[in-house]
Amino acid sequence: MTDIAPATRARVMSALRGQRIETPSWAYGNSGTRFKVFRQEGVPRDPYEKIADAATVHRFTGVAPTVALHIPWDRVDDYAALAAYAREQGVQLGTINANVFQDDDYRLGSVTNPDHDVRRKAIGHLLECVDVMDATGSRDLKLWFSDGTNYPGQDSMRQRQDRLAAALRESYGRLTGDQRLLLEYKLFEPAFYTTDVPDWGTAYAHCLELGERAQVVIDTGHHAPGTNVEFIVAFLLRAGRLGGFDFNSRFYADDDLMAGAANPFELFRIMHEIVQADALRPEYGIAFMLDQCHNIEPKVEAVIRSVLNVQEATAKALLVDVEALVAAQRSGDVLEANAVLMDAYHTDVRPLLRDLRAEMGLDPDPVGAYRRSGYLDRVRAERVGGEQAGWGA
Ligand code: RM4
Ligand code: MN
Fold it and tell me: Buried b vs exposed e over 28-42: b needs ≥16 C-beta within 10 Å?
């Protein structure tokens, strides 16, 4: 596709202008592997500073107006004040992520723990997260459970499913209005034998039991190698149960690298399914989130680049010539159908995105503009002392 027809261009630009990508508060904090957490200068010392970083990403990209919180990493006394600060900075608080994977009590699991008291504690945290949503005005509660077992015989798989179902039921019952429960799955880690929510099928089955406001989240790093993620997207879209994405990329397992870094073609194929279902519009309800950890690279810039990568994949997906694609599909022209898709994928959308940013009053080169802004030097100088808030050392 060498030239983009004016009508196509207008349609693509308008869809891209409306795109919304949520960034994760924990991407701005220090993080690491099991082996080492490398500290970086200038990382946020509290949730307010994480929001300032998220607002910086939005200022340069124009499409990242919300930031997800992780509780208790982002626990504050006054969530209304935090929300007001976010608004002042030009962003809003988004999804609330529960964390029931870091207390000693959770050695044998959280909501699926064999011990009733531990389960009560974990459920109490999930309910606390809904209180936070009430205070912040967040729509979505995102649940990921590290629960599972390491050895055959360690616990009853069926009973763990029952305990999980009970905890989900109680949390779901606490939701009001348009609040939703987003259930995330992950194949393995930290449990190595069984995981209680290992795949989309398990998550989907639990969501069906709960009700319409229970939806599945696809974290792109949470599958076995070779899994066709866009099939999962298509299936859940059709079932009306795709609540959102945790975008990141992976070479091996849950690597949490920048979205679009390892497999930009996969990201394009995912966005193609979204575009074909007309599910990009914010009103459709899918939460397009990032879930990443930047262990050795500068964090704010890595998030900016991730946002741009998602935007680029989306632009390409929007360029697919649907008429030609459908004609090729209907006539059984396998190779032409594939060629139509590849034509869009191979289009250089960078000039179009530069124009889009100029139209939005942004610098056409967000990474360059961010680097020139001196933001990193400023926070390095300002954020001295105190403890880094969140995930690691
Ligand atoms: C998990 C999962 C969750 C995220 C945590 C930090 O693997 O992806 O979404 O909140 O990591
Ligand atoms: Mn995730």
Answer: bbbbeeeeebeebeb
CA of 270 to the centre of ligand 2 (A): 16
Rounded CA-CA distance 218/242 in Å is: 8
Question: Which residues have a Cβ under 8 Å from the Cβ of 278 and sit 6 or more positions away?
Answer: 284
Residue 157 tokens, joined: 């798989």
pLDDT by residue (tens digit) across 18-29?
Answer: 999 999 999 999
Cβ contacts of residue 171 below 8 Å, gap of 6+? 123, 126, 127, 130, 141, 143, 181
SS3 content of the chain, % helix, strand, coil (to 5): 50, 10, 40
CA 218 – ligand 1 centroid, Å: 11
Instruction: Enumerate the H helices of the chain as residue ranges.
Output: 6-17, 47-61, 79-89, 116-136, 157-174, 200-210, 229-239, 264-276, 299-318, 322-330, 334-346, 350-359, 366-373, 375-382
- Which mutation among 141, 144, 247 tests ligand 1's pocket best, with the greatest number of atoms within 8 A of CB? 144
Are 227 and 200 in contact, with CB atoms under 8 Å apart?
Answer: no
The Cα 208–Cα 202 span in angstroms is 10
Question: Residue 364's pLDDT is what?
Answer: 98
The number of C-alpha atoms within 13 Å of 48 and in the hemisphere containing its C-beta is 11
pLDDT of residue 391: 65
Residue type, 203: A
d(CA 1, CA 201): 38
Q: Considering only CA atoms, which residue is closest to atom 1 of ligand 1? A: 144
Non-local (6+) Cβ contacts of 63 within 8 A are: 16, 19, 20, 21, 307, 311
**Is pLDDT above 90 for 387?**
no
Atom of ligand 1 nearest to the CA of 184: 9
Model pLDDT, residue 42: 95
The DSSP line for 52-78 is HHHHHHHHHHSS--EEEEEETTT--S-
Ligand 1 centroid to Cα of residue 293, in Å, is 10
Nearest ligand 1 atom to the CA of 217 is 9
Exposure string of 249-265, with b = 16+ CB inside 10 Å and e = fewer, is: bbeeebbbbbbbbbbbe
User: Length of the chain in residues, anyone?
Assistant: 393
Rounded to the nearest angstrom, the distance between the alpha carbon of 294 and the centre of ligand 2 is 14
